[in-house]
Amino acid sequence: MGDSSLNRSELLFDRPTELFASQPPETRGHDRDDVRLMVSTPEGDTHHAFTDLPQLLESGDLLVVNESATIPASLRANSRLGEILLNLSTRFADDLWLAEPRWSASRPGPLPLNEQERLDIGKATAVLLYRYPGIPRLWFVRLGTPASVLMAKYGEPIHYGYAPAYPMANYQTLFSRFPGSVEMPSAARPITSRVRDSLISHGIGIVGVILHAGVSSLEIEDDAVEHQPLFPESFRVPDATAQAVNATHARGGRVIAVGTTVVRSLETAWASNGVRACSGATGLYIHPGNSVHVIDGLLTGLHDPVTSHLAMLSAIAGLHRVRKAYAEAIQNRYLWHEFGDSHLLWRQSAN
Amino acid sequence: MKCVALVTGAGRGLGRILATFLAGQGHDIVITARTSAELHDVAQSLEGTGVRVVAIPGDITDPMHRTRLLQQTRMIGGLGLLVNNASDLGEIPRPELAIASLERFRVTLETNLVAPLALIQEALPQLERTRGLVVNISSDASKGGYERWGIYGSSKAALDLASKTLAAELKPRHISVVSVDPGDMRTRMHQDAFPGEDISDRPLPEVTVPFWAWLINQDPERITGMRYHAQGAMWVIPA
Question: Is the pLDDT of residue A226 over 90?
Fold first, then answer.
């Protein structure tokens, strides 16, 4: 599938900032499913309403969603540098988290902080232990108060410069059941109950995995895209889901991952003869140098330039098709990010 | 209360990082290594972490030394985590098996296979009380069949099989055993294995810290019998 090595510059593209979706559709007086859906196959790209999704799939296809719910992981902290943000990313234990200290929502780090420095979060403290190897803007931190308590008291949803913080409900999907993601697994966001019911009545299955998403895809800094270090995120592929995926393939049906987190979970769970039930931590980085085994299609949003997500898309459909689809999306003024439009990318011909 | 840990080969490299990490996480630790100066340097660097650090220099192939180590772990609360990290690379430069010294091979097996098993045997009563975890440090040389890695590699292959067997045998006693391949790292041992070569492209042993942070926070009984790559892209627990 495509070239095995990908250069950073090949994932660069220009996209006007007015194409950043800064507001959820429901706060603009629309329904969540009132977004657009671009479908990309080897034959080309077509444009649809998201509510057309059931008609674009076939009976016997299987959607796999992420059932992780979003938690308010952005904490204001006082430090030697003044007020900063501490965005919790990934839980290792109640008192041990991977976290990203930032100047603010719109201004990332790395911050000039040192090991053993203390941060005050309200009346609680956090101690910086060590930087994550290879990813200097992430730190292991020890929390003096359990994260759940800190978040309940002081937490806001993690958000970035292009959008303000909205109420937590805006960061959950229909399938959010197990709290743990610090950024919304947003691909399922436009799936409303009416879309879900229509999918089911079209004979399309829906099953879940859990992957607690950490702070989002870091920009790829190395010229060779396959050298991007990723940190591990906690995941689980339940037995019923593994069985449903394998049975779908055995019947000749297609497996569609709803979101990049689902691709990573399923590909992590892949063994030579199918998907096995398992859990653990995965930092699996999917790029054109390693193959995709499980999924036939990916339903996702539109991703930023030079991110690991784009490397994954290129592993699924080849760089040429991804670049073509993104040019098409820009030309047709699709909206980017978690509150934006949708993209269904097929590995092969859809029909 | 975090459990008491024992780390062998803690004077430098991976063992030092492990000891530092575990102390930082609030574990009381007993550390050992043959080079006394290095070991005490590690102990000194951990002053102020607020945990008990007991440094006992010695050779783990010495039964008296092993008994001393386990007396200490018992005295400070009972062993919950045993990390068999001390390893012997064997003859340097690494010989082909066809001409390897058998005497020297026995020494390597004694350090890499017999001594870890002896520590485990003697620690069983403590590990049973704490429902503890044994981590045996392995190497990709145990699977490779790489030329000139036969001595070290076969000792680690045997340790891997011992780990897996122990995991099965000790399951009813709620003692768990895993094998961990830390991957290539910029350490003294790695430099010894490649004399005169530039190994600066290998990561420092700190690269394994995320894995240890993950491992020690798992339920040991769910991961027993597994072999992990500390620098791998995924750490999977079977259903």
Answer: no
